Amino acid sequence: MKHRAAARRPCVLVIGGTDSSGGAGLTRDARTLALLGIETNCAVTAVTAQSDRRVASVHHVAPSVIREQIETAFEAHRPDAIKIGMLGNRASVEAVDEALQARGGAEPLVLDPVLMSSSGGVLLDAEGRRALAERLLPRSTLVTPNLPEAAHLLGEALAEDEEALLAQARRILGLGTGAVLVKGGHAEGDEAADWLVVRDRPPERLVAPRVRARLRGTGCALASAIAGELARGAGLPDACRRAKALVLAELRAVAHDD
Ligand code: PLP
């Protein structure tokens, strides 16, 4: 019997932290990408001990080990897209930047600028935030801040309405990324509206009904799903729309009425 060589499945390299509670971080990324039938390889930047209520400790992985993980991930299975989540500090940001400079090429890069956990723990310190904006943001295809992250990236106050949010997205675009998806999930109202701003195109408003649910790691899942869609060849607006639909389905599955 003849066997056909198995088609190579698309692969996303996920770079970020672990979350011992399993809600967010790399396990969430891998789970999301598995749902889409995408392979993952990974580079761990930080190990966190956390629950839904607190971040108990953060252990930063040595920069040389971060670089080696990225190098060997490329050797093992060249990724079709890259997703970056929690980095922790400046040294990790620099290690990722150096490794991608050495190994990375044209693959799309989705940068989720993870700054804090929803329980309030700091996941990227102030120097790390500056390094992220200077070094990784300009090499990203898409950056996916929520409202507080957008304000922090710019050193500005929280946007109070959609007009202000859109203006912030445009200013983040000015920092050198290819596109910005600002997530309005932290705002009030019946809709969760995001804005996708891509250079030289009119901005697109992506809306979903607001779902009352407590689910951690939705930012990780969204950015991973976008990277997965890009890895299999989707254009950016389609990738964002499909990823948002996937997260909405997950939220609906755990929704509550109160
Ligand atoms: N912990 C890790 C390791 C993460 O990567 C992230 C988000 O990317 C979080 C926590 C934050 O998740 P949440 O906002 O759901 O607490």
Count of alpha/pi helices: 8
Strand order of the largest sheet: 3-2-1-4-5-6
Distance between the termini: 59 Å
Q: Tell me how many strands there are.
A: 9
Shape: globular
Order of helices and strands: EHEEHEHEHEHHEEEHH
The secondary-structure class comes to alpha/beta
Identify low-pLDDT runs. Answer: none
Helix % is 25-40%
For the sheet with most strands, the description reads: 6 strands, mixed
Can you give a write-up of this model?
The structure is a single chain. The chain has 8 helices and 9 strands. It is globular and about 45 Å long. Helices cover 40% and strands 21% of the residues. The strands form 2 sheets. A 6-stranded mixed beta sheet has the order 3-2-1-4-5-6. A 3-stranded antiparallel beta sheet has the order 7-8-9, with helices on both faces. It is α/β, with parallel strands linked by helices. Bound molecules: pyridoxal-5'-phosphate. The site of pyridoxal-5'-phosphate has 18 residues, from strand 1 and helix 7.
How would you summarize the topology of this molecule?
Layout: E1 11-19, H1 25-35, E2 39-50, E3 55-60, H2 63-76, E4 81-84, H3 90-103, E5 109-111, H4 126-136, E6 142-143, H5 147-154, H6 162-173, E7 179-183, E8 191-198, E9 204-209, H7 218-231, H8 236-253
Parallel strand pairs: 1-2, 1-4, 4-5, 5-6
Antiparallel strand pairs: 2-3, 7-8, 8-9
Helix pairs in contact: 1-7, 2-3, 3-4, 5-6, 7-8
The structure holds pyridoxal-5'-phosphate (PLP).
Residues 16-17, 19, 23-25, 48, 85-86, 112, 114, 117-118, 123, 216-217, 219-220 line the site of pyridoxal-5'-phosphate (PLP).
